[in-house]
Amino acid sequence: MRNLLITGGAGFIGSNFVHLVLEEYPDYRVVVLDKLTYAGNLDNLKGLDGNPRYAFVRGDICDAGAVERVMQDHEIDTIVNFAAESHVDRSLMEPGAFIQTDVFGTYVLLEAAKKFQVERYHQVSTDEVYGEVLENRSTEEDRLHTRSPYSASKAGGDLMCLAYHTSFDVPVTITRGSNNIGPYQYPEKVVPLFITNAIDDIRLPLYGDGSQMRDYQYVRDHCEGIDTVLRRGRPGELYNLGTGVETRNLHMARLILKLLGKPESLVQPVADRPGHDRRYALDCSKVQALGWRSRHSFEEALEKTVRWYVDHEWWWRKIKSGAHYQEYYTRQYNGREIQP
Ligand code: NAD
Ligand code: TYD
């Protein structure tokens, strides 16, 4: 039996990872530690209550006492850290929360990993730490060139992980994933935002000219990649995880509208994000050598994602009609429209 602590397991990728582990590994127990910020949602873990291999603990990764209690109570041997403030636009509004959770919180978890001598500490990181990549692809050796408070905080977390490996021999691995799409993504991120707006005939706020490029991967593929690194990755190593195919935001928006049978006139150009990284692109040959490859093309991933949001209105309508979301949306988008 292995005892996994999955921090941030009530969020988008973390909850998909919890489902994968419980489905695929009958000999694993999973404990979710999650603060339930605006992005944490127990609906993402619906159906797991009563499963003897699953437990949920509400708590903050910045709280050393709470982390140590969970480690002890559940005899944790593996930590997989998904907990983070994760949205670039919010990091432009309130950077402090990002430094707190993504850097300090990572340090608290690393201290626990060291004290309890875990078999593995895995850090879920992002391609954004490489910064804007206008040509070629980022390899794990590339220098970090962060440009937003989000990516700078994530890079701080990565560097702390590497420091704990070098200084204290903590068996750390890190994955740097590209943009995920799929079930349970909070509709502030572009794909679920555009899908759910389009369903309601609300305009799609496209930043700038929409020519920015992202490597959108299906969340289940990303989770399988993390699992591959947990099983076959080498401590002290970093692994990029993505499809290696980039798509422009305008193309992505038009595909969503086409899949939903909505007119292209719903696209509304808005003032660009400050410091907007025009392109991320990953070289994933290192993780491919471990036997992992993403299984969905962008089109397949997007189609499945659109279908999920169409079929799960109960999940996202609750969020979008809430006061927190409405306030954020107004603050983020009101008065931002520009004429095409
Ligand atoms: P998310 O915002 O959907 O979920 C984050 C979760 O962490 C939430 O459940 C939240 O309640 C929890 N959390 C936040 N602060 C916490 C704290 N202090 N203590 C305990 N729990 C806390 O994020 P996501 O999109 O699922 O991303 C998960 C991880 O993957 C993050 O580390 C993110 O940087 C990384 N990542 C995300 C993407 C992407 O496309 N979404 C891509 C690459 C990497
Ligand atoms: P996002 O989902 O915020 O992820 P990230 O910035 O971390 O890659 O944004 C993805 C892309 O979509 C990015 O180029 C910014 C763009 N975008 C819009 O055009 N409009 C929006 O309302 C949002 C949220 C993002």
Task: Explain what this protein looks like in three dimensions.
About 40% of the residues lie in helices and about 15% in strands. Strands 3-2-1-4-5-6-11 form a 7-stranded parallel sheet, with helices on both faces. Strands 7-10 form a two-stranded parallel sheet. Strands 8-13 form a two-stranded parallel ribbon. The protein has 2 domains: about 5-180 and about 215-240, Rossmann fold (3-Layer(aba) Sandwich), CATH 3.40.50; about 180-215 and about 245-275 and about 295-325, UDP-galactose 4-epimerase, domain 1. Helix 2 (about 65-75) crosses helix 4. The mean pLDDT is about 100. The chain is an alpha/beta fold and about 350 residues long. Strand 5 (about 120-125), helix 5 (about 150-170) and strand 6 (about 170-175) form a beta-alpha-beta unit. The structure holds nicotinamide-adenine-dinucleotide and thymidine-5'-diphosphate. Nicotinamide-adenine-dinucleotide (NAD) binds next to helix 1, helix 4 and strand 5.
Largest sheet: 7 strands, parallel
- Per CATH, what is the topology of the largest domain? Rossmann fold
CATH level 4 superfamily of the largest domain: NAD(P)-binding Rossmann-like Domain
The tally of beta strands, per DSSP, is: 13
Write the topology of this structure:
Blueprint: E1 2-7, H1 12-24, E2 28-34, E3 54-58, H2 64-73, E4 78-81, H3 88-93, H4 95-115, E5 120-126, H5 149-168, E6 172-177, E7 180-181, H6 190-199, E8 204-207, E9 213-214, E10 217-218, H7 219-232, E11 238-241, E12 247-248, H8 249-260, E13 267-270, H9 285-288, H10 298-311, H11 313-320, H12 323-333
Parallel strand pairs: 1-2, 1-4, 2-3, 4-5, 5-6, 6-11, 7-10, 8-13
Antiparallel strand pairs: 9-12
